[in-house]
Amino acid sequence: MAADKETGAPRGAALAGVKVLDLSRVLAGPLAGQVLGDLGADVIKVERPEQGDDTRAWGPPYLKDEEGTDTDVAAYFLCANRNKRSVAIDIARPEGQALVRKLAMRADVVLENFKVGGLAQYGLDAASLMALNPRLVYCSITGFGQDGPYAARAGYDFLIQGMGGLMSVTGAPDGEPGGGPQKVGVALTDVMTGLYAAIAVQAALLERTRSGLGQHIDLALLDVQIAGLANQASNYLAGGVLPRRMGNSHPNIVPYQDFPTADGDMILAIGNDGQFARFCGVAGHPEWATDERFATNPRRVAHRAELIRMMRQATILRGTAEWIAALESAGVPCGPINRIDQVFDDPHVRARGMRIEVPHPEAGVAPLVASPMRLSASPVRYRMPPPALGEHTDQVLAEWLDMDADQLHQLYLNAAI
């Protein structure tokens, strides 16, 4: 355990003692729960008996055991469910609803991503649970939010990428081969929503230390996606410029895109005039840096097509590794376009420990992506692998609710757990 540098006293996990009841499934909500769990919160994942989180069945691929044989653990489920305990409760049954209410009375946080109003029929909505526990931070994640004309609609990442403008700026330009709308290669809106949820929950917990009261957090995938448009939204709102698909080009910076090499491709991410001048020297064309068409970024943006054509004729003459070595030595931001296997084989990625292995009861070990959060005194710890369905039901109900064996047996007989 890390110690305080001044006092030498041991310091625990950042969110140690925080109890989270995670009623969510698929990606955005579970990812938020995983972030909180990584930071030390006790996260209880409530799942449907026998079925569990939808992503448990989203395979192949599946986690392999030590002999290389597929287990029944879908790889998708692994990405957002470590550092949690799984409790199987049927919330369609009155006994199950009562259990969740009791757990919520002892929780600090509830995460859920049911449709708007979907939990009210069970008495598990924000108003009902916060009436029982006024200190509860209740985070609802939906496609379109708790109000507005689309509130009742189901929301999915792909749908929101389209509606939220991301696909209008992603992909090859219209009129070029492969042009047209393109989604991002991961469920990025879900990922961003999970991160915003974790941030909002922690903010609400901090505010609770002053007010003594919890609050309801309303997070919508569409809102998050619009916020995630960043400079593209600002270009439109402030400058009246309607962004369009530009492939790998940047709307505001030139050159900032991919370039062909003798044996593949590379990325140039040139952010200022000095970097451009240094690139020109390495490329053997120092005259480009003083050419009035290219000397400043606004001029390069204005003469984008001309400059990119000239640069491509130069970059194709050397291999990727040769370019990267020369440009890095000159302080010009550049890099390869890696496949995912190359990502995890990169020496820097290995040095940063971004691939981890945690013990797993079915597979021996489960390979996972590490948390990118580096806290010097209260670091992330990988305490538990993604759980089996209902693995901790008895343990959690005994620990949180002081239930004995007879009470648990009755709940099993009633099919509540």
UniProtKB/TrEMBL annotation:
SUPFAM superfamilies: CoA-transferase family III (CaiB/BaiF). This is Crotonobetainyl-CoA:carnitine CoA-transferase CaiB. GO terms for molecular function: CoA-transferase activity. Gene3D superfamilies: Crotonobetainyl-coa:carnitine coa-transferase, domain 1, formyl-coa transferase, domain 3. InterPro entries: CoA-transferase_III_domain, CoA-Trfase_fam_III, CoA-Trfase_III_dom3_sf, CoA-Trfase_III_dom_1_sf. It comes from Pseudoduganella namucuonensis. Keywords: Transferase. Pfam families: CoA_transf_3 (PF02515).
